[in-house]
Automatic annotation (TrEMBL):
The keyword Magnesium applies. The keyword Magnesium applies. The active site is at residues 22, 70. InterPro entries: UPP_synth-like, UPP_synth-like_CS, UPP_synth-like_sf. Coiled coil: none annotated. It comes from Prevotella illustrans. Belongs to the UPP synthase family. Pfam families: Prenyltransf. Its cofactor is Mg(2+). This is Isoprenyl transferase.
Length: 256
């Protein structure tokens, strides 16, 4: 490997990186192969990038694997993807890298064997502590937010039945309450969102959580996304000033 011409600040690696892994299909089509060939290659990238994130000290890696809207793809592509999820979960990647696995999304829509394997992997890796890999499967942010609102009402109704509690009013609704009902409540918001494959959109991913994430887009198709590309994204992140609405001067003062 040639020496890179940049230097990452290892003390300021994003704690949480979210990735929209896009471009598998185009990568395969360019090679005159079926789209599933691209998804297969994409699994290898997941392995490489997971190991590298662990090595760099990233604590949470959230991967957009299959969106609610992806259910509208041809049936053979969907079943190839489900098959890949099953085999990828057999992988030693989690135990070898001390990675805890979690899934978010509407997993009730997934085939039984996939759903079972997901739960098994979550249990099997629950004590791993180097990094948490979160796979967003049958996920979309609007689905997640809608579900959160339904859960808030349902939980309140249950409590209301049991006690002399007041009905749910607008005063009960806080950002904290909504956040607690997001599927991602067990982790901090993403610091950095990367999208590969050249599209400049977020495609219904983590809309609530990325309010203040730094966004990074690159042309590289996901199967070609290298450790070096990951470093470039992190470097871009490290060169930015996160202000969270404050002024540059205020942020500089707080850093002292
Ligand atoms: C991303 O790659 C993976 C999934 C959505 C499952 P695509 O399959 O969207 O690849 P392109 O965008 O068609 O190249
Ligand atoms: C987003 O990619 C979903 C995943 C990467 C899983 P898509 O390829 O589905 O997004 P659009 O349709 O181009 O917006
Ligand atoms: Mg795509």
């Amino acid at each position: 490997m040639t020496e890179p011409d940049y230097k990452l600040d290892i003390d300021h690696v994003p704690q949480h990186i979210a990735i929209i892994m896009d471009g598998n299909g185009r990568w395969a089509t360019e090679r005159h192969q079926p789209r599933s060939y691209g998804h297969q290659a994409g699994v290898d990238t997941v392995r490489r990038i997971t190991s590298e994130c662990v090595r760099l000290g990233v604590k949470y890696l959230t991967l957009y694997t299959f969106s609610t809207e992806n259910w509208n793809r041809p049936a053979d592509e969907i079943s190839a993807l489900m098959g890949l999820v099953l085999t990828a979960l057999e992988d030693e990647i989690f135990m070898k890298n001390n990675v805890r696995f979690r899934v978010i999304g509407d997993i009730d829509r997934l085939p039984d064997d996939v759903r079972r394997k997901l739960r098994e992997t979550e249990e099997h890796t629950a004590a791993n502590s180097a990094m948490t890999m979160v796979v967003a499967l049958s996920y979309s942010a609007r689905w997640e937010i809608t579900r959160a609102v339904k859960d808030i009402i349902a939980e309140h109704e249950t409590r209301f039945d049991r006690s002399s509690h007041h009905p749910l009013t607008s005063a009960d609704i806080t950002e904290e309450l909504i956040d607690r009902h997001m599927q991602t409540h067990f982790m901090p918001d993403p610091d950095l969102l990367i999208r590969t494959g050249g599209e400049l959109r977020v495609s219904n991913y983590l809309l609530w959580q990325i309010a203040y994430s730094e966004l990074y887009f690159c042309e590289t198709y996901w199967p070609d996304f290298s450790e070096d590309d990951l470093h470039k994204a992190i470097l871009s992140y490290q060169r930015r000033q996160r202000r969270f609405g404050k002024t540059e001067a205020q942020v500089e003062e707080e850093r002292k």
